[in-house]
Design goal:
- This protein has 128 residues and is α+β, with helices and mostly antiparallel strands.
- The longest helix is centred in the middle third of the chain and has 14 residues.
- The termini are far apart.
Amino acid sequence: MKDVIKRFYDEVLNAGDLDVADEIVGSGFAPRGGQATGPEALKQTARYLRSALPDLRFDLEDLIAEGDRVATRWTLRGTHEGDFFGFPPTGKPLEVRACVIFRMENGKVAEIWPVIDSSSLAGGRSGA
């Protein structure tokens, strides 16, 4: 399971290889607030993040698996060049921290629950 989540971050989000989403995300995957489901939901998220932070990099700090769950703690870094969840671009480095819990089903990502450190986002805003 950990290998799937590493691919989620390293191959899809960091490297921009959107085809990998078809291999690692289940058809019922539907992040909150998203319009798409399944692999397309992850592809849309990756495209959106890259439009905001073209040089983005997710660094996994922790990766823990138990049962059908995988928990991650990561730091996202990049240059803020586009809208980022309502924060206008600053052209400056942005750093966001979060913890995310994934539920796996049949070896693929079925559900995701992110908890974003909102103080790290506010820090990005004050840098504008």
